[in-house]
Amino acid sequence: SGAAAKCFLEALRLKPGLAEAHANMAAILLGRNDRGGAIEHLRKALQGMPNVPEIHNDLGFALASDGQFEEAAKEFAEALRLRPDMPAAKRNLEHARARLQAERAPK
What we know:
Blueprint: H1 2-14, H2 19-31, H3 35-48, H4 53-65, H5 69-82, H6 87-104
Helix pairs in contact: 1-2, 2-3, 3-4, 4-5, 4-6, 5-6
């Protein structure tokens, strides 16, 4: 929502490296279909919380939504490395790999 976004942006103004605020802002931006903004915030969130598989999965989702399937697959794989029993990351990785294969197939 607009109010939540304002709160997260204010938190980031006061503390630019606040990883949780970046992750939450990314979720809002994804909901608004602002993939570029979401990707930027998720990358910043990972700087402060590199071992959170949900953030890797969310970044992979944003990248895949932007057509960046190779980078997305790397993020999904990292999410699974951190949490091997994460069904969403497993499904997302399979989807990204299938899209990569389709892109590379002769036409």
